[in-house]
Amino acid sequence: MRQPENTAWYLALIIILIASLVVWAVLTLRxxxxxxxxKREETLSIIIVIDDGDKPLLTEVLYFHPVTQNGALVAIPxxxxxxxxxxxxxxxxxxxxxxxxxxxxxKAVGGLLGHPIDFVIRLDTSSFERLVDHLGGIDVFIPxxxxxxxxxxxxxxxPGGVELDGAKARTYIEYRPRGEVIAExxxxxxxxxxxxxxxxxxxxxxxxxxxxxxxxxxxxxxxLDDRSLATFISAISSMDTERLIFQGILGNRRTLDGKEVxxxxxxxxxxxxxxxxxxxxxxxxxxxxEDLLTVRIEILNGTGVTGxxxxxxxxxxxxxxRIASVMNAERNDYERTVVLDRRGSPDAAKRVAExxxxxxxxxxxxxxxxxxxxxxxxxxxxxxxxxxxK
Length: 390
Description:
The protein has helices at 3-29, 33-39, 103-113, 125-134, 166-174, 182-202, 204-207, 213-219, 226-236, 269-283, 308-318, 346-355; strands spanning 44-51, 56-64, 71-75, 81-84, 89-92, 119-124, 138-142, 146-150, 153-157, 160-164, 221-222, 245-247, 251-256, 259-264, 296-301, 322-328, 338-341, 361-363, 375-379. By secondary structure, it is of the alpha/beta class. Helix 4 runs antiparallel to helix 5 (166-174) and helix 6 (182-202) crosses helix 9 (226-236). The relative contact order is 0.11.
């Protein structure tokens, strides 16, 4: 009478074992999300956020090309203004940030940059502090000494290359000096993120060990599963963090509902074009060692339009170019805009010209030329402040 019962139990046990084997096989043999993404051989985008448990203190988008292993960091100021579709209004990005629900923030940043965000990595300040301590500190270059008190808190940092422990690194992120312009804050955020990525890459073997990785995984909040996060850390170790392209968002400051908001130039078109140009650069391993985006430009105003050269300089700065000089030309009646190659690098001059759609490119290499200038732009009446009109 008990034989059918025993048979049923055996069958149930066999089914459970088979199901367990299938689950094990799926979990063991599946390819993680980050590996799958790298197989497409396209630039990946990872948003890195450090928040205070409520609002973002630092937001950087890391662009990484898995073939060339080139990378770029784009800083996103928390006061950036844009149309937030999730709340159907124009406001600062930080207003839709939720530490437990990244999707609205991720989508808004992706829309702002014109390129969707693939993955999210998030740390609160406490986890960030512990991670930095576990890394043995991070090396950060501080351009000038800081001895400042803000809201009763004293901030003290020596100049030069400094090793910051977790508490100091956290303070460096939280520091908001009065009157600081966004460009200065962006540089600070670039330095701290670059240093963090460098340390993660340098110590990747130890961090990915069976003993250490569970602790690291517990500090990092991400939509990457364990295997994907491990692959991400491993991929960082192959990226040359010393040659990252740095980019920020420049814009016009306005007051909206009593809060300062920064609206990106040209209704956000400029930053989208910048990201596209960066992605084109990351694919090219041939120019990355001597990145053409870092050529030094002289901008001369050859028109009677006041401030045209200064505004054009801001345009080129937003693309990562270095501005060597901004001044008036020897006359103000230039009809056509001209780009001059001053160092025998036609590719650099071409890239500078492409940005404003200038077709007049010439070589003018003088024996006694200023060595700090690679390309000269003379703005003519055909330049409307963004493009050269045909």
